[in-house]
Amino acid sequence: MKHKHHRRSDCPINFALEVLGDPWSLLIIRDIVYFGKKTYTEFLASEEGIATNILASRLAHLEQQGILLKRPHPTNERKEMYALTEKGLDLIPLLVEMANWSAEHDPQTGAPPDWIALMKAKREQMLPLIRETVQQGRAVFAGPDSLVSQLQ
């Protein structure tokens, strides 16, 4: 009897990471870029179900590696917020390529087809827009001032 692998989600980034290696670090970065997540609690709520100890470890590692910057939350002193550094922002093209690859090869992808088509057709124009959006603390898909909402 063949063992069936249980997928964490249908996200194109998750698919690529399950094929290529450990998913957690790039999924945290994905959550910042695409969904505007900034706090431990927000990352913990992601559909892949990261364990608390793994999340804490990955956040600390990404900060230590200069990918994330941790700062106090402006309205709640018990919370901390995470943002991508310049080094972390440099991973955006990798995320885009992983999403494109996954959308093409994963029949169960959760990637929006219109977004993937736009990224394939106008990659060079879109990458700086994504970077600028994230630098401003916004996200590609989430929030009223998301990049997608501004493109419509």
TrEMBL record:
Alphabetically sorted, this entry's keywords are:
DNA-binding, Transcription, Transcription regulation
What sequence ranges are listed for the domain HTH hxlR-type? 11-110
- The yes or no answer to whether the keyword Transcription is present is yes
Q: For this protein, what is any one GO molecular function term? A: DNA binding
Q: What is this protein called?
A: Transcriptional regulator, HxlR family
Q: Which organism is it from?
A: Ktedonobacter racemifer DSM 44963
